[in-house]
Amino acid sequence: MEDNKPSNKLMFKLDLRIACILLLLIIVSMLVIWRPWQDTTPNDSRKITITGQATIKAEPDQYQFNPYYEKDTIAEVSALNDQIIKKLKELGVTDSQIKNNASKYGSPEIYYSAPVEGGEKITLSLTITLPNKDLTQKVQDYLLTTNPKGSITPYPSFSTSKQKELTDKARDLAIADAKIRADKTASGLDTKIGKVLEIGEGQQDGGIYPLTDKTTSVAPASGDGEGIDSSISIQPGEDEFSYSVTVVFALK
Q: Is 20 helix (H, G, I), strand (E, B) or coil?
């Protein structure tokens, strides 16, 4: 029996060492999994929301006229409509760029129509949308000879394709601006920004305003279609196109 005592003590020591090693491995594994040295603050409270903005300038690439005319009879309106459209096409305007509409008002047969001095009137309205300034100038010079009512200068705007082009460019600039703003804000808080958590749909805030016209004296056109003494020079200038985007960044 006495010969087994040293062997038992040796086994006990080995078992104790193995237990310590296993315990140490368990502790290390728990530390690796839990990582207590990291900040345990929920991710949703460690974030920053920044709005990036960008404004670019561009010259309008689309111009729209909206003249209208008043006549006493449908025959007169029809003749004037044919005359104007024929001339517009001679200047280079296509069918797809012209819309017309005829309406009647002042008729005693229409109960909601207010009485009009001189009796019933027929109105011819035209919408002419043009893609460049040179053609727009020619059309304006001609329309001034037709004695139109309403605005005689075109309304400038960005075409659909131009708006897409400007949106893509402004979006990239707005996102870059959001990144710069976020870096500066995080630096002031003694931290750094991490990955992007969310990005909001951009907001367009672009301005398209009526043309700035350089006008001399414009002699009114006579009813017989005679020419005018001078025209109005189209000067579109540049309009601002603004875009903003909201980005949520994680904080490290």
A: helix
